[in-house]
Amino acid sequence: MTGTSADVTLRSISKSYARQSVLNDIDLSIRGGELLAVLGPSGCGKTTALRVIAGLERPDRGTVHIDGGEVTHRRIDKRGIGIVFQAYSLFPHQTAAENVAYGLRVRGASRSRRTARAAELLALVGLADHGAKYPQQLSGGQQQRVALARAIAIEPRVLLLDEPLSALDAQVRVQLREEIRRIQYEMGTTTVLVTHDQEEALSMADRVAVMHAGRIEQVGTPHEVYRRPATAFVSSFIGVVNRIPGRVTGAGQVSALAQQLDLATAGYSTGDLVELLVRPEHISIRPESDGPAGATAIGTGVVTALTLRGAISSLTVVFPGLPNPIRVDLPSREAQLFERGYRVRLTVHAEDALIDAAAADPAARVAA
Amino acid sequence: MSGTSRVGTGSRSIVQEIVLVTAGLLFAVPLVASASFGFTLPEQGFSLEPMRDAVADSGFAPQVLQSLTLALLTIVASFALLIPTLVWLHLRARRWLPLAEALSVIPFVVPAVALVNGANLAFRVTVPGFLTSVYSLVPFYVILTLPLVYRALDAGLRAIDLRTLCTASASLGSGPVRTFFSIILPNLRPALLTAALLSFTMVLGEYVLATLLLHSTFPVFLVQIGQDRPRAAAGLSLITIVGTWLVLSALTGRGLSRRRTSLPYSPDLRTAS
């Protein structure tokens, strides 16, 4: 089973509500057949971006293109899109099969074609035996599966998923996440997933667009946005990050915890107060007794806690004069070598670190 | 502490029962009295003679038919006016809903006499023939039933996620008209039934406007025959009340049972995904 795979392009899209800018000069290209996740915190404009693609919002400036054709002013029912909403959106007066067949009925498909297609799609989403049930007789997860089947029944050029899993409990969410990915892969339909759940975005998407304050901060594969965050926001929004106070001491030089580090300092001047952003798994740890630190060592601290998280463990390391402890993640087998009270040396992998302007309030420097 | 609580609960329960029984008596005693008066004759006991006499009256059938037609037209006109308006308000102008709700209760505070006098002044000059037709009552009845119909429909629209349903329908290629008839109206069925029944009941019992505008309807007929045949009037009134109540129960029950078919939430399904 294959679907259409239209390219979607947003060019210089801006949108404001009551003079408050929600989308600020957005440029985004979604490749045909890919699943792109738009990830960001509440209020960042991600849902508005999706509504602009759907035709539910008209941008103040900019254009929307689907498959090369401009659709900025085209009504939602003329764009060839399918939507699965966060809220349960099945028509309450129709059975699951009738819901799935609705779009085909609108298109004038024969009864036999509608029945066959509805049965086929309900089977695809694992609900072959639930066609005669009304939405209220289905669980939340089942309703969202039917909504997905209904959206793809019309073979949309673009499938838009507006936080479709956020109302579901954790177990169902994980299960449905995998199923949506499987179905999207089988159908090959260009899909835009809006979510605030980074795990959902990273596990489902071919590419992730991270949004913040109406702008797109970075677009890349899940691996790229996690391993090579383009901005401090992306670094702190995706995954856990340690924020270590420091100062720019020269071009490409940052002083943190009385150590000199070789880091990119573009945009900063000598003397600027900064914060070093580094993920817990990008810090190496070894006992102090093992010898002197390398060029990127940030100093010596004391282990105050060890938290088992399954395959990995987290060590909490306190440095004198640092307001917040540093978290270091390492395989649990290696973590067994450390105990509370151990003095340890930490080494930052400079290629995985970023710097950010220091927060005005030192108390705000909290490890995320 | 728990003893005090039980005493409190017990006394509340007694008060509730007293209120219920009192309300039941206030409702039932007049009906029983009407039945007793309307279906008995002195020294003869139970009799349908007064009823037969009233039904045989030449005015009975036309007035009943007239009132039923007026009720039907009122319902159609109310729906035509209020459903699109309320849907539009809920979808596009939610901030105006409180104002619309406040305006909808105005008919409760404008006396029928004032309404008719105003209409007389306005229409006798502008459209002289308008008030001579019995169907001129329809706009007045629409105004009269507005508060009830508005509330029933508003409650129905609030009970569904109108915006999401409309967006979902549009995303599936459905235009606004098809969405209105295929999605919105079917999901408003219980509210439509309630609104229709309230209108129906009100029109079937409306006397003041019809009399003031010199039109003869079923309630006017009831009052007229009550002057020389009070037993027949009492019997007919009772039949009207009980009949309307039965129709209401049947339709409401049907509406609810349709909803109920989709309401039960099977526990084994809830856990399944």
Structure characterization notes:
The complex is a heterodimer of chains A (about 375) and B (about 270). By secondary structure, chain A is an alpha+beta fold. Chain A has 2 domains: about 10-235, P-loop containing nucleotide triphosphate hydrolases (Rossmann fold, 3-Layer(aba) Sandwich), CATH 3.40.50.300; about 240-365, RNA polymerase II/Efflux pump adaptor protein, barrel-sandwich hybrid domain (OB fold (Dihydrolipoamide Acetyltransferase, E2P), Beta Barrel). Helix content of chain A is about 25%, strand content about 35%. In chain A, strand 9 (about 205-210) and strand 10 (about 215-220) form a beta hairpin. Chain B is mainly alpha-helical. Chain B has a domain at about 60-225: MetI-like fold (Orthogonal Bundle), CATH 1.10.3720. In chain B, about 80% of the residues lie in helices and about 0% in strands. A two-stranded antiparallel ribbon of chain B has the order 1-2. In chain B, helix 3 (about 60-90) packs antiparallel against helix 10 (about 190-205). The longest helix of chain B is centred in the first third of the chain and has 37 residues, at about 1-40.
Question: Concise description?
Answer:
Chain A is an alpha+beta fold. Chain A is 24% helix and 34% strand. Chain B has 14 helices and 2 strands; from the N terminus they run αββααααααααααααα.
Number of alpha- plus pi-helical segments of chain A: 9
Classified by CATH, the class of one domain in chain B is Mainly Alpha
User: Overall 3D geometry of chain A?
Assistant: elongated
Structural class of chain A: alpha+beta
- Biggest chain-to-chain interface with counts: A-B, 37 and 30 residues
On the 0 to 100 scale, the average pLDDT of chain B is: 84
Order of helices and strands of chain B: HEEHHHHHHHHHHHHH
Strand content of chain B: under 5%
Q: What name does the CATH topology of one domain in chain B carry? A: MetI-like fold
Name given to the CATH architecture of one domain in chain B: Orthogonal Bundle
Main beta sheet of chain B:
2 strands, antiparallel
Q: Give a count of the beta strands of chain B, DSSP E runs of length 2 or more.
A: 2
Main β-sheet of chain A, in a few words?
Answer: 6 strands, mixed
Coarse structural class of chain B: mainly alpha
CATH-defined topology of the largest domain in chain A = Rossmann fold
Which residues of chain B sit in consecutive blocks of at least 5 with pLDDT less than 50? 259-273
Distance between the termini of chain B: 45 Å
Alpha carbon gyration radius of chain B: 24 Å
Organism (chain B): Cryobacterium flavum
Protein name (chain B): ABC transporter permease subunit
Subcellular location (chain B): Cell inner membrane
Membrane topology (chain B): Multi-pass membrane protein
